[in-house]
């Protein structure tokens, strides 16, 4: 949700179109640092979230920072920007701050992950009393970006001393673009088994629910509206009916047209149409290596 009309208005507008959770940028995503958030504006946002009964809130980090940058000057600037975003998220009282792990820019995956881990360690040292959970977003795999593979996400999380402060935000378009198939029950079961084995499903604290314009494994980050892309409705049916994600918020980052937020409302209705009218017992697992899809709800 945009904040051009005010932070509090983002919560109000979100509820108007049927949101139970909202994600915002706390400033322009194309800025290294934004104007300070006035305490009164932050309190108004928190009050609006309470009044509207929103279940979860999240700030998305800006696009310029790269916590894995091999260039010292830009790394220092990125780390400063990250602390600023973290402070803004704390002031707003949101549940989580999600960020793109960054890119190694030719330095290699191992080196890039090492720099990223050190950046996050320094952030914790600088803000030891914070309560906002920091979520790494999986990448689509373009260029030298890090963390398109669950193994890389696990490497970062396993190296940090405060596991309660960190987690993962899974973007469905990015997963699909990175080569993870989940278009039917068998593929979805294999995927969630892999997530559990490598990463742990309990480390997933949010979803970006986006269809994809490009094919499986394209490594292209091109979002599409729900059910209108290459992923397809069945994959989203499996996600929103999986009890493991029942209390995990899902955020839309799908394309908008000239009707404002009307397209978001349509995507929300599409997702909710995939839910059963009554709870259904999950099917039995066929093998230890593959779980069948089950019931629950990511979108309330």
What is the structure about, briefly put?
By secondary structure, the protein is of the alpha/beta class.
How would you characterize this protein structure?
The protein is of the alpha/beta class. The protein has a single domain (7-272), classed as Alpha-Beta Barrel (TIM Barrel), CATH 3.20.20.150. The chain has helices at 7-16, 39-52, 72-92, 109-126, 150-158, 172-177, 185-198, 233-240, 262-272; strands spanning 21-24, 56-60, 96-99, 133-137, 166-171, 204-208, 211-212, 223-224, 250-251. The strands form two sheets. It has a seven-stranded parallel sheet with strand order 1-2-3-4-5-6-9. The longest helix is centred in the first third of the chain and has 21 residues, at 72-92. It is globular and about 50 Å long.
According to DSSP, the number of beta strands is 9
**DSSP helical segment count:** 9
- CATH architecture descriptor name: Alpha-Beta Barrel
Q: What order do the helices and strands follow?
A: HEHEHEHEHEHHEEEHEH
Counting copies of identical and different chains, the oligomeric state is single chain
- What is the percent of helical residues? 25-40%
Q: Determine the strand fraction and express it as a percent band.
A: 5-15%
Biggest sheet: strands, sense, closure? 7 strands, parallel
N- and C-termini, Cα separation: 18 Å
- CATH fold annotation: TIM Barrel
Find the structural class using helix and strand composition: alpha/beta
Strand order of the largest sheet: 1-2-3-4-5-6-9
Could you say how many structural domains there are in total?
1
Work out the radius of gyration. Answer: 19 Å
């Amino acid at each position: 949700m945009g904040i051009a009309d005010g932070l509090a208005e983002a919560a109000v507008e979100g509820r108007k179109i049927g949101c139970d959770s909202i994600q915002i940028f706390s400033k322009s995503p194309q800025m290294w640092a934004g104007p300070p958030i006035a305490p009164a504006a932050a309190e108004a946002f928190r009050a609006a979230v309470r009044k509207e009964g929103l279940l979860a809130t999240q700030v998305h980090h800006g696009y310029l920072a790269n916590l894995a940058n091999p260039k010292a000057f830009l790394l220092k600037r990125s780390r400063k920007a990250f602390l600023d975003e973290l402070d803004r998220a704390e002031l707003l009282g949101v549940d989580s701050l999600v960020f793109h792990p960054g890119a190694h820019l030719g330095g290699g995956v191992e080196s890039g992950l090492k720099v990223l881990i050190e950046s996050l360690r320094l952030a914790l040292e600088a803000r030891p009393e914070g309560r906002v959970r920091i979520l790494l977003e999986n990448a689509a795999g373009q260029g030298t970006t890090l963390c398109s593979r669950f193994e890389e996400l696990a490497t970062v999380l396993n190296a940090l001393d405060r596991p309660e402060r960190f987690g993962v935000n899974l973007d469905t378009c990015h997963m699909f673009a990175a080569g993870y198939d989940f278009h039917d029950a068998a593929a979805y079961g294999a995927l969630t088994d892999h997530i559990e084995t490598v990463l742990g499903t309990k480390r997933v604290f949010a979803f970006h629910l986006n269809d994809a314009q490009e094919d499986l494994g394209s490594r292209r980050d091109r979002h599409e509206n729900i059910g209108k892309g290459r992923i397809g409705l069945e994959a989203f049916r499996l996600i929103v009916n999986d009890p493991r994600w029942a209390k995990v918020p899902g955020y839309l980052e799908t394309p908008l047209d000239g009707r404002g937020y009307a397209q978001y409302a349509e995507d929300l209705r599409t997702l909710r149409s995939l839910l059963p009218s009554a709870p259904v017992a999950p099917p039995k697992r066929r093998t230890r290596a593959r779980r069948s899809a089950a019931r629950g709800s990511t979108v309330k």
